[in-house]
Amino acid sequence: MKSKIEADNSVSYQLRMLEGEDEILEPLNQYLGKKIQIEFQDQINCIGCGRKSNKSFNQGYCFPCLQNLAECDTCIIKPELCHFDMGTCRDNEFAEAHCNIPHSIYLSLTSGMKIGVTRQMQEQTRWVDQGAVAAIRVMTTRRRHHAGLIEVELAKDMADKTNWRRMLKNEVDERNLNTEKGIILSKVKCLIESARIEEDLSYILDEAEVLNEESEVQELKYPVLQYPEKIKSFNLDKDPLAEGQLLGIKGQYLIMDTGVINLRKYGGYLVSINLG
Ligand SMILES: [Zn+2]
């Protein structure tokens, strides 16, 4: 599922589908209120290498890819563990293209407020994927590793995980992200001064140059007719058919009157889809 933030901060979703041999991008928002049907065809193809696989790991990969691809390494989920400088990266080209480039440390409001790290060029995509209703960039680092080291220190006092059930029910705390950004920045300054962040200090001091970056709160409005009161999720591995009336789309979830489904979870799954 792809997404785009429109000028009025509303999110529009598209679904990548195959029609015969052709890949099409079907706008999804228009199906709100209509019946939809998703049926797993009992075939999984690895999103890394394409081969058939009995089980999907890490949201779409086969077992060999899980063990070998840089994008499946532990340091992707935990950037503070980046081991590029030790010369043990699984794929240096991947690292230069995806890790050793500007990263953002951000605050987002999904249900509670959380802190996170992402490649700067895709921060908006990241916020939509989480189902954040608002987010703000706090600072920029030159590499993923540095962002990870700082995030770990900051996450000691705050959440770095999304509560997806509360996110889907739209139970969102009241927080002013501009104010929170200021609080985080002063913490980072303290961390730098006290050198609590390990790693060559000169690197981190360089980071301080970007502490005064201007940034604005990005608000996000999702196409939702009705939020669920109770969350029941579909599991295509147990029951291949998910159907119902589409009540909304938030994060990577389709919300139906019969339950919710996390489409990201089924990367590599061959499904047939009936819309409207
Ligand atoms: Zn594979």
| Number of contiguous helices | 8
Helical fraction? 10-25%
Radius of gyration: 20 Å
Q: What percent of residues are in strands?
A: 25-35%
List of distinct ligands in this structure: zinc ion
Mean pLDDT: 90
Number of domains: 2
What order do the helices and strands follow?
A: EEEEHHHEEHEHHHHEEEEE
The largest sheet is:
5 strands, antiparallel
Structural class: alpha+beta
Q: Outline, from the CA principal axes? A: globular
User: What's the β-strand tally?
Assistant: 12
Distance between the termini: 17 Å
Cross-sheet strand order for the largest sheet = 11-10-9-4-12
**Low-pLDDT regions:** none
Descriptors:
276 residues, 5-stranded antiparallel β-sheet, single chain, binds zinc ion, 8 helices, globular, 24% helix, 2 domains, 4-stranded antiparallel β-sheet, alpha+beta
Q: Can you walk through the features of this model?
A:
The chain is an alpha+beta fold. It has two domains: 113 residues, no CATH class; 157 residues, no CATH class. Helix content is 24%, strand content 28%. The protein is built from eight helices and twelve strands. A five-stranded antiparallel beta sheet has the order 11-10-9-4-12. The chain has a four-stranded antiparallel beta sheet with strand order 6-5-7-8, sandwiched between helices. It has a three-stranded antiparallel beta sheet with strand order 1-2-3. It is globular. The site of zinc ion has 8 residues, from helix 1.
